[in-house]
């Protein structure tokens, strides 16, 4: 078989590329093919070519056509990078045998992975192809801006109680919450025998420690943009006197059904000067951001108990805790609960296929071994500041690619189902007790009903309900066009002014007005980027993609429990899986999480506190 393959390749002008593919790069070309094997389609094509040559009844043109099909199967996976993507992403993909997309020589859809730092346009999500993946989920910024995150957590705390959602300090969004903050600040100052609180002020849309202020006296609070003010955790866990926090990597492969993977390895980030509440303006003692501490005078010096630099791996941190007898099992369970509860706060997001989101959760541990959520990072830093970064982040990217679960057919980068339009998905849609099958783009929302036409020449019969709905949508579209011609387009300034001057509508009138709206009426892709009124609705995710998502196992059609160091943390049992399938039943999921929390043994928790007390005294 190899001999006939070489002859066919030589007929095309040279040896076959497949003969020189290293075994470690084979996965990027052949998918799950075993070492030394070729795909079945490739072997069948070679057998057909050999049979034609032996029979003498085939023309040279037929041989070349078969050989072209054979070579087409051997195309490698292709990645596409936007500007400013960290160099390590390109390095890892090239290490795996991928090739980089060339816009001048390749078709716009001839790629498998598109990675960028900024959100994708809605048109990118609409036109996604079955063989492609995007590294951002639409509207994932809902939890990565500090003010949005605070609002969502506050809403969840009010809906499901503060017992579960006490992992984030009370937040005040300034200047809107200035009066509330003054009331809380005055209340604590007037409390007899209570230790005065410390506060931290952060700009809502900045990262890497920029603009952060820690204060105790309100006269020191100064800001010139929208900020969030929270209680500063003044009793952090210290190692040899140095403050630390955890950078946990979390990959969400789907928000509907919710599917969450936590990375077992991660980064422990240290401040480079010893913690001291007497010097609140010393950023090297209170902030753990590497982007700040790498410029400190003590960064390259050897620090007792810490070493040089300012980072450990999770593995080293676990070993350190166990040396002192601290049981960290309960700690990681609590951290996983924080991740799940935080992501539940923003579900459901628009249903989107073939995308994923890598978040960076910043977790601080206090001296009672309680984890606190500091913030959630969009595009967690992948730059390499030290050898520990290289160890953790390079393996992280390799495991992300494995998690994307590419198949051999994805290397073809073309539709394999005849009569379907590229980038479309079949979804089930029901309302008022009636059901029908709709075709919709890769991204769906409850305010959008997309009309798709079949690429096949045979037109299937259309359900009467579907015909009536389409006529209604066309009528609304016609009226909308006439209205647009009659009135000039409003500017953004005029729209904002109208919204500010508009009288408030009672909640009942709002509900009636909302019920009168037709699905899809007045929808614009640009409206999805307005992030000022995000309240999830129960029917937001009542769509089901009939094409199997990439993150499901081939064996049992369930999320793969482990890929590399990525461990599935949600769904965590059968009840949670069922509660996340047909829309996200948050109430049922909260009940399951409460059951998990109750299973934690109080004796183990008390024993852990004793060990941590000894740990902090070292």
TrEMBL record:
Does this UniProt record's set of keywords contain Ligase? yes
Q: Name one GO biological process term.
A: microtubule cytoskeleton organization
Q: Is the ATP-binding keyword given for this protein?
A: yes
Q: Which PROSITE patterns match?
A: TTL
Position of the signal peptide: none
Which cellular component, as a GO term, is one annotated location?
ciliary basal body
Q: Which Pfam families match?
A: TTL
Top-level lineage group: Eukaryota
What residue spans carry the region label Disordered?
A: 1-30, 507-531
Check the record and name the InterPro entries matching this protein: TTL/TTLL_fam
Keywords (alphabetical) are: ATP-binding, Ligase, Nucleotide-binding
* GO MF entries: ATP binding; tubulin binding; tubulin-glutamic acid ligase activity
Q: What is this protein called?
A: Tubulin tyrosine ligase like 2
Q: Which organism is it from?
A: Mycteria americana
Q: What is the lineage of its organism?
A: Eukaryota, Metazoa, Chordata, Craniata, Vertebrata
